[in-house]
């Protein structure tokens, strides 16, 4: 069954009046040297959290963090992190442990797409899947022991896309597998491998995969499915896992096209990541912009 979208309201009190965090609250954002990730770091820092801006390129990352510190946000720290490289993840996790002793918020934002808006090549499918799905998954799994599980509730916000929604999948078997209540991480990886195999075979176009930005959509489909499984794994504990689609945003990924700016997308993302503990759901997919919607993952 497709999950039903319900309207979600942000008309609740302004962020500053629901403040549960403090200077010691640590938020990590991946792929944050530009775009939505950079805007999220800025917003978190303005709101007074300690923020770790990560980027795969040291120069770009340092420059981005420095520009925020120059804007009067000394609570922004940079650390290199390439989510597609397990060794880089390992180095980052031990740096975070040594430097801050843990974290409270993780935003898996880093992602790639190699297509122009109206293209659908799968030439770089492996890199897309490796970065957008496996990168977020491996980083999450590696950071799980460092979450503080405090009363304020630790949070993971996966920046996803409506292109990875279940209703974009046209193959009924794949859909049934992913929608099964007992879905396992192994089954998600099997679906991803099936897609990569169909790319190798040259059969992907006739197999009922999402029709737009297919490799990217499959990566986000897998990320959504993993988020659902993870939310179930941590049900009842002090860790919430949700996904957020920022909508069509003016960034490098869209070659500057979109209906709104990264700052506007980040405002909604920050509100979600910082929901008060007693209003924080888990296992939800939030659709920002347009009417705000949330649905079960
Ligand atoms: P950008 O291309 O502007 O930013 C992507 C960021 O990810 C860059 O900082 C990039 O670094 C980084 N990145 C790429 N690969 C890696 C890697 N291996 N390790 C670490 N960082 C990496 O795109 P957006 O800001 O638009 O995208 C942010 C998120 O929002 C993504 O998850 C995207 O899928 C999602 N999204 C965006 C939409 C939009 O309309 N823009 C719509 C729906 C979802 P570098 O500069 O080095 O390339």
From TrEMBL:
Keyword Oxidoreductase: yes
Superkingdom, natural source: Eukaryota
A GO term for molecular function: oxidoreductase activity, acting on the CH-OH group of donors, NAD or NADP as acceptor
Top-tier EC class: oxidoreductase
EC number: 1.1.1.-
Alphabetically ordered keywords of this record: NADP, Oxidoreductase
The UniProt record lists the keyword Repeat: no
PANTHER family according to UniProt: (+)-NEOMENTHOL DEHYDROGENASE, NAD(P)-BINDING ROSSMANN-FOLD SUPERFAMILY PROTEIN
Membership in a protein family: Belongs to the short-chain dehydrogenases/reductases (SDR) family.
Protein name: Short-chain dehydrogenase/reductase
Species of provenance: Theobroma cacao
